[in-house]
Write a structure and sequence with these properties.
Number of domains: 1
Structural class: alpha/beta
Shape: globular
Order of helices and strands: EHHEHEHHEHEH
Largest sheet: 5 strands, parallel
CATH architecture: 3-Layer(aba) Sandwich
Strand content: 5-15%
Number of strands: 5
Helix content: 25-40%
Number of helices: 7
CATH superfamily: SGNH hydrolase
Length: 210
């Protein structure tokens, strides 16, 4: 007689238990796409210090059920923005905060070219059903009075033509304010980005629903 040894046939073996599939949480909140260049991407600060991040915090604090997606790309121009519209639309945004053009201006590109690119982006975004909020930016004063005048006017003309909510200057209350700008004089600090987020939030509230 043998002790301590048992024999189990295949017929009596317990059936293997299938692993329960992991359920992926789907964030069904409508999307607000922050579509821009390094000012939106948050160049020079942490990912938790850019304006779209702070905008999400403001939305959450006020009870708005939206998800902010950062489509900022450092160095991008309006031409690059045209190429990236399909990526933005892939998120099916309800609202798009469009901030581009600064790099066009810094390169001295013709305002007419930038305007044409903006029109292409705006038309495609609006055709998708998204509400577009246009955020303007300006240039250092040494770019010449005439060029700066035409550049600044571009945003206002576009906002009027396409009936968009308009932020005349995204960096209102931030530019030239100690502690708000990084040493390069172009990008906001974390503190500055909080102010930018509040500025954007103020304009968004006319479009938000609870």
């Amino acid at each position: 007689m043998f002790y301590g040894c048992t024999h189990t046939t295949d017929a009596t073996k317990p059936a293997p238990v299938a692993a329960k599939p992991v359920e992926q949480q789907v964030d069904a909140r409508p999307v607000i796409a922050a579509f821009g260049d390094s000012l939106t991407a948050g160049a020079g600060v942490e990912e938790t210090e850019n304006y779209p991040y702070y905008l999400q915090q403001l939305l959450d604090a006020k009870g708005y059920k939206y998800r902010v997606v950062n489509h900022g790309l450092s160095g991008d121009t309006t031409s690059g923005g045209v190429d990236r519209v399909p990526q933005v639309l892939a998120d099916k945004p309800r609202i798009v905060v469009l901030e581009l053009g600064g790099n066009d201006g810094l390169r001295g590109l013709p305002v007419a070219t930038s305007t044409a690119n903006f029109e292409t982006m705006i038309q495609q975004l609006q055709a998708s059903g998204a509400k577009v909020v246009l955020a303007g930016i300006t240039l250092p004063r040494n770019y010449g009075v005439d060029y700066i005048r035409d550049f600044d006017a571009m945003y206002k003309k576009l906002a009027t033509k396409y009936k968009m909510p308009f932020i005349p200057f995204l960096f209102e209350g931030v530019a030239m304010v100690p502690g708000m700008m990084q040493q390069d004089g172009i990008h906001a600090t974390a503190q500055g980005n909080r102010v930018v987020a509040a500025t954007v939030m103020g304009k968004l509230q006319e479009l938000l629903v609870r």
